[in-house]
Amino acid sequence: MNGSIQPSAAILKQRKTMGNFSNPTLWAAAQRLAFIEKSAWWRGTVNRQDLQAIFGVSLAQASADIQKYHELNPGALVYNLNKKRYEGIQTMSIPEGSTTLEEALRLFFPGGSNERVRFAASGMAVAPAARLDMVALPQRSGNLEAMRRVFMASLQGLSVRMRYLSVHGAKDSWRVVRPHAWGHDGNRWHVRAWCEQSGEFRDFTVGRIVDAEWPKDAEEAMPVDKEWEEMVTLKLRPASGLDAAQRAAIAQDYGIAANGVLTISVRKAMENYVRARLHIALKDGTGAQGQLEEVTKK
Fold first, then answer.
1. Which of 42, 66, 146, 255 could covalently link to 104 via disulfide, CB atoms 3.0 to 4.6 Å apart?
2. Which of these three, 177, 192, 225, is where a domain ends?
3. What is the pLDDT of residues 144-202, one digit of tens each?
4. What is the pLDDT of residue 1?
């Protein structure tokens, strides 16, 4: 299967009797037990043929796996004689945080992948590919060789001269930088670096790095990036301009606690990225107001 299935706490509790999951055989067993649990939870069904088709085990081993799951989570599965399958009961319980919707989509809405072919071969109820899709945004990646050199410099504490296309100030220039950190704004990667040209730390969008020379030792020590080291807290609530029903919907959507406040901790250097993603006014007060607003201003 593509990627591993994370065993839940109910399954991991058998570590003491099964030993260390670094053993490939024991890890494979845990994977099958995890699949039984997640299939019964999300699909509502699981059978021995599923385990045979997906993991390549014998019918006897599949039966043993289902029996083992019965022992770990008694009463969670019932056998439907008419449909010849095990079904997860309505009140089936699994540990909080042991699975996600994304995992269910990956496992049981696999689109046109090879997994779907194997699922279909076992008679599993798999959603048609047309029922699952994702927005395909343009890929924003830079010159691979340049990325290699900038990345190497960030790992080894070196300086690197790179050619960067900026939408502000100089449109196309070579500059010497000291990269030390990487951040993703939810849409693209940025490299955080001391810029000798500007005399300050800046974020450089990796897709705009056109070229880079081989990194070399820096001539002097790099200052401390205080904005990267400092954490700030944003306290947010549904926008006051919304009516009560709309505020309740936004609170539900963002998982806002009963006190009505959503608390987010973020590096100061990345604060504006969070604000932009959530459509909150930026630190300088600009930006469109969205569904959330700050409880207190920074």
1. 42
2. 225
3. 899 999 999 999 999 999 999 988 766 678 999 999 999 999 888 999 999 999 999 99
4. 44
Last residue of a domain, which of 108, 131, 154? 131
Instruction: Report the interhelical angle of 48-55 vs 59-72 (nearest 10°).
Output: 120
Domain extent at residue 275: 230-294
The domain tally of the chain equals 3
Q: Are residues 220 and 237 in the same domain?
A: no
Query: If we measure between CA atoms, which residue out of 130, 132, 129 comes closest to residue 117?
Result: 129
Distance CA 141, CA 149 (A): 14
Residue found under tokens 């699909």: 43
Strand partners, 263: 235
pTM for the whole structure: 0.68
Please list the residues that pair with 194 across neighbouring strands: 178, 201
User: Within this chain, do residues 201 and 246 fall inside the same structural domain, yes or no?
Assistant: no
- The encoded tokens of residue 122 equal 């076992």
| Largest CA-CA distance found in the chain, in angstroms, rounded | 77
H-helix or E-strand containing 78? Answer: strand 77-80
What's the CA gap between 287 and 253, in Å, rounded?
22
CA–CA distance, 222 with 243 (Å, rounded to integer): 50
Token couple for 248: 């309740």
64 with 151, same domain: the answer is: no
